[in-house]
Design goal:
The protein is α/β, with parallel strands linked by helices. About 25% of the residues lie in helices and about 15% in strands. The strands form three sheets. It has a five-stranded mixed sheet, with helices on both faces. The chain has a two-stranded antiparallel ribbon with strand order 1-2. It has a two-stranded antiparallel sheet with strand order 3-4. InterPro entries: APOBEC/CMP_deaminase_Zn-bd (IPR016192), CMP_dCMP_dom (IPR002125), Cytidine_deaminase-like (IPR016193), dCMP_deaminase-rel (IPR015517), Deoxycytidylate_deaminase_dom (IPR035105). Keywords: Hydrolase, Metal-binding, Zinc.
């Protein structure tokens, strides 16, 4: 039985709990109660299960739809990258929004997004000193703490080891973040959008950090 209360029989059919399929549905506007159809399968209207909405049909039809939908299940990399994209929406940076998620053994250790240090005014309020600087240059002018750095910092604050973890980030890390990632003993980096910093990738490769890029919707118009 899964978290929705469903069980799968030997034939691979999904058996619905009583709460999922209505026992009786009125037919038309005459107020009649048709009860159960003779075939032993309940007629259903529309209901939601596991975030999906189903049209009228039989239990078997709905079962087939759910089993077919399982083929669209995201991979773990896609799953955590999607979470990183949601984290990025919390960013207060004027130039770009970046989100990062630290994961080990399929468990989230911490998250981070780029923004001003704790207690300082947001860049949204005071502006960005790098606004007219080409992307990838003069990071020392930036007021923000990068998403990757914030994720690692949050883990440190709460006493969580990052050794052996995977970092999911909406953008490729810069050279500053790459050095921190290496010394944090993070063993894998997955990112969704490129960044103009080949040196960062070279550092990660030399340190033996596995790097993978998977396509993801850009959370902003331009990378930092």
């Amino acid at each position: 039985m899964n978290r929705h209360g469903l069980t799968i029989d030997r034939d691979g059919d999904i058996n619905f709990p009583p709460s999922a399929v209505p026992a009786r549905l009125p037919r038309g506007g005459d107020g009649e109660d048709p009860g159960w159809p003779r075939g032993g399968r309940a007629e259903v209207g529309r209901f939601c299960l596991g975030g999906r909405s189903f049209e009228a049909g039989t239990e078997r039809e709905i079962s087939d739809r759910i089993k077919a939908g399982a083929m669209d299940r995201p991979s773990l990399d896609e799953y955590f990258m999607e979470i990183a994209s949601v984290v990025a929406t919390r960013s207060t940076c004027l130039r770009h929004q970046v989100g990062a998620v630290l994961v080990r053994e399929k468990r989230i250790l911490s998250t981070g997004y780029n923004g001003a240090p704790m207690g300082l005014p947001h860049c949204l309020e005071v502006g960005c000193r790098r606004e007219n600087v080409e992307s990838g240059y003069r990071h020392e002018l930036c007021r923000a703490v990068h998403a990757e750095q914030n994720a690692i910092i949050q883990a440190a604050i709460h006493g969580v080891s990052t050794s052996g973890a995977t970092l999911y980030c909406t953008h490729q890390p810069c050279i500053l973040c790459a050095k921190i990632i290496i010394n944090s003993q993070i063993q894998r980096v997955v990112y969704g959008n490129p960044y103009p910093d080949d040196e960062a990738l070279r550092f990660l490769e030399l340190a033996g950090v596995e790097v993978a890029m998977i396509p993801s919707p850009p959370p902003s118009e331009e990378p930092g």
